[in-house]
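Appendix B. Raw example, untouched.
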Amino acid sequence: MRYRAPRGTTDILPEEQVYWRYVQECASSLAETFGYGRIDTPIFEDTGLFVRTVGEATDIVDKEMYTFEDRGSDQVTLRPEGTAPVCRAYLEHGMHNLPQPVRLYYQISLFRYDRPQAGRYRQFHQFGVEAIGDSDPAVDAEVIELAWRFYERLGLQGLTLALNSIGDKTCRPLYLERLVEYYTPHVEHLCQDCQARIHRNPLRLLDCKQLSCQPYIAEAPVSTESLCDDCREHWGRLTTHLGDLGIAYSVDHRLVRGLDYYSRTVFEILPPEEGSQSTLCGGGRYDGLMEQLGGKPTPGIGFALGIERTILNLKRQGVTVPDQSTTAVAIAHMGEAGGREAVKLAAQLRSAKTSTILLPGQKSLKGQMRHAGSLGARYVVIIGDKEAANGVATVRDLAAAEQREVPLGEVIAAVSQDHSHD
């Protein structure tokens, strides 16, 4: 073949759509149950939005963004993450005038030039939520609960919630000093990326996956021991709320997340399979992000979860996904008159919101029946020239292995009536 999907992208074929529909509908309905409204932002933004918020010293900005100059000589970037565009929209549309917090959710495509891996592509998809305008740890608990209940509703088992607090602008500088002081004597033993991070983004030292860096991470100072009084109180109230909600968690002192804008609460949800690329969901609080965008100090917290990785885990765990795409009725037809009646009947059934497929009339009746079976049709309506002349059709119920002859004008009622017995 001359052309294939670009590396790191994939086609979502019809047989895969049942998983996508299941995950996306579950996400939307649950978010709306929690009071979140949908927002859709542009697929590309001003490059500066991501450089300023995600952080120049992050891998996303350094290595992964799809950035180009458009025909108007503006630098634009395909969206690599969802939070910064939502915060930009919050400011641009004056959402600070709404009752706070403003609760928003999204289902979007994102783009990162990264090595393709299981469940993660260069074009990938996320479901995410943002709660903007309230610093109460009860909102942190709500956001975490929404993510946790989502996976419960999908039917995934054995997941782990990892939790940490990385402090705020008051106490984090002192923690970073302690971190740099600890790592400096070992710098020559660190991987090349960490040798750069110690000066540019020391918090990311704890997130390194290189084997050579693991012994130093294990002995590094932990952020929860350097929290100021306000952050310590916030942390205590959050963990109390999670206990009240019956949501178990483990404190992971290595957990820092990959973006510069996080503060205080950070969390991840992981599947039973271990691995550096296994994280299903990640999020946290970003109380200083709005100021970076030129807005007033506005607290916020959110999460994003990978739809591809979620579907991968549904398949791994053998979760049964309801298939709502099955064809209800297939119409087999023979002869010119039978074909004309079949076309009219198909239109009538579709108008009655019944999923209907017109089978290929050039095939024999046996071939058309086989075709109907491969489509998963519940009913086959058979119309030949003789049936057309008599104004009738044969309705065959494939599930019950029964058939009966009904007037053409009663086919819709007959299929609907039979359906009501399921």
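End of appendix B.
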